[in-house]
Amino acid sequence: MTQRVLLTGANGFVGKAVSKALLQRGDTVAGLVRGAQTAAEGVREWLFDGDDFHGLEGRWPMGMPCDAVIHLAARVHMMRETTADPLAAYRATNVTGALRVAAAARRAGARRFVFVSSIKAVAESSAGRPIAETDKPAPADPYGISKLEAEYALLEYGRESGLEIVIVRPPLVYGPGVRANFLQLMDAIARGVPLPLGSVHARRSLVFVDNLADALVHCTTDPRAAGQTFNVTDGRDLSVCELARALATQLHAPARLVPVPVGMLRLAGRLTGRSARVGRLIGELRLDSSHICERLGWYPPHTVEHGLLETAAWYRATH
């Protein structure tokens, strides 16, 4: 059965992959975006420039019914924060804004709201075992705190209103169009830069963008997803060293990985004021994604190898 889906953040890296997956399924997709002609072909654009979705309910277009929402838009984690009160800024967009979208969508007839959260709502690292959805959350920064607060607020709104809420917590997402640290890693490997990653063996969960998109489509359609929280991963965790070697192979570049002891990397992080960044590079962050498999019968349709092949092919074609 096809559906009418509103997708916030439709013009983003993940949003375009989700749009493609929904359209291939035969769904009607409306993309809530700030700029014209930025969403994928086939998506009906709804231009809205209100800060933190203020006034969204009153400006809902006539003749645009909605069965489900996938809420991707967010104030994302920033390496160099310039706001005087970061937590307030994150809350305004990620908590209050998400609630405004949920309320407006419910009034337009939506039955389900899929909120794309982050594993940062729970933790920055795992300690010897993968993080499960039932683990006690302990977010470490304003972004993670705001995502967790949004989860709680949306679940409460769902209980009060009857809107079905689904929470999805991905780890690092990669694929064609990826930015930030993953792109920087590919840049360095492609240029043959020696990297001090040869001794980094802690494993980290990843999710290929098309695997995440497929999971989100399932979360909008499967009745068993209502009220659930899901970790979504590729199902296979790589160390940073393994990831770099795999990318080097796909990029047709040498893997120049220097075996610098992890303790020395931590020390360098402290001396340069980059302890948090180094910690994310060398620390373990594994997710247990068995719940979505057991509850929905969902398994990632693409392997890690396929995901890295697609990502590297995009990189070679565009850089």
UniProtKB/TrEMBL annotation:
The lineage of its organism: Bacteria, Pseudomonadati, Pseudomonadota, Betaproteobacteria, Burkholderiales. It is an enzyme of class 5 (isomerase). The keyword Nucleus does not apply. This is N-acetyl-alpha-D-glucosaminyl-diphospho-ditrans, octacis-undecaprenol 4-epimerase. The gene is gnu. GO terms for molecular function: isomerase activity. Its EC number is 5.1.3.26. It comes from Paraburkholderia rhynchosiae. Transmembrane segments: none annotated. Residues 5-232 form the NAD-dependent epimerase/dehydratase domain. The keyword Zinc-finger does not apply. Keywords: Isomerase. SUPFAM superfamilies: NAD(P)-binding Rossmann-fold domains.
